[in-house]
Amino acid sequence: MAEQTLSIGEVINLLRDDFPEVSVSKVRFLENQGLVAPERTDSGYRQFGSDDIARLRFILQQQRDHFLPLKVIKSKLTDWERGADVVHDERDPQERYLEPTVEHIGEADFLRRTGLEANELSELISHGLVRRETDGGFDPDALAVAKEARLLFDLGLEGRHLRLLRLGADREADVLRQLSAPLRRNTSPEAHTKALELLASAAKSFEAIHFRLLRQELRAILDE
């Protein structure tokens, strides 16, 4: 029996609950970029099978949850097709830590995508966990922070408890600011490149150490 296929409109309706931002134009764009390749009828209409839909889910999830650019997602698709674990972000440290964000999310969409109430968002802003952009919107990093904060709110924590994360990040950034200062004061392109490499490499090490130290403390808590 031939596999049942869906039209592009039916695919949008199927995915919209999990990915409200999905649209016909977005799916067409992903196809133009070579990330999906649905079959076509003799009349030229797209036909999406189960593999195509699973592939779309993976792409949209990587964009939504990890904010990966399409070129990175495309490189992961081969591993995904083989069933490999591709959850981790394996981008070059400079790209991962220092690549500028371009997406700005309006407040109404931000609240919808995070599940936060307006007062909870205000609390996160007041404690420095989320920053509003000059245009009044928010960037993908703020969205990721807010999603995690919502989970912690559900566990019983409050914004004041999460402020320590902001303070820790600020202190780490101050250390790296001092470390990179001599390179940043030098205006040559070579010094700029070295400053980027230093910041990205140090940030990666900071993150790895933080994970290990926290894990040690959690084990100690269980042993109490």
C-alpha Rg (nearest Å): 21 Å
Biggest sheet: strands side by side, in what order?
A: 1-2
Apparent shape: globular
Helix coverage percent: 55-70%
Count of discrete alpha- or pi-helical segments spanning 4 or more residues:
10
Q: If classified by CATH, what would the architecture of the largest domain be?
A: Orthogonal Bundle
Please name the CATH topology of the largest domain. Answer: Multidrug-efflux Transporter Regulator, Chain: A, Domain 2
Number of domains: 2
Distance between the termini: 60 Å
Average of per-residue pLDDT values: 86
What is the succession of H and E elements?
Answer: HHEEHHHHHHHH
CATH first level of the largest domain: which class?
Mainly Alpha
Question: Beta-sheet strand percentage?
Answer: under 5%
Overview of the molecule:
The chain folds into two domains: 8-89, Multidrug-efflux Transporter Regulator, Chain: A, Domain 2 (Orthogonal Bundle); 107-223, Multidrug-efflux Transporter Regulator, Chain: A, Domain 2. The chain has ten helices and two strands, in the order H-H-E-E-H-H-H-H-H-H-H-H. The longest helix is centred in the last third of the chain and has 35 residues, at 189-223. Helix content is 65%, strand content 2%.
Short description:
The protein has 10 helices and 2 strands. With 224 residues, it is mainly alpha-helical.
Key features?
single chain, 224 residues, mainly alpha, Multidrug-efflux Transporter Regulator, Chain: A, Domain 2, 2 domains, two-stranded antiparallel sheet, 10 helices, globular
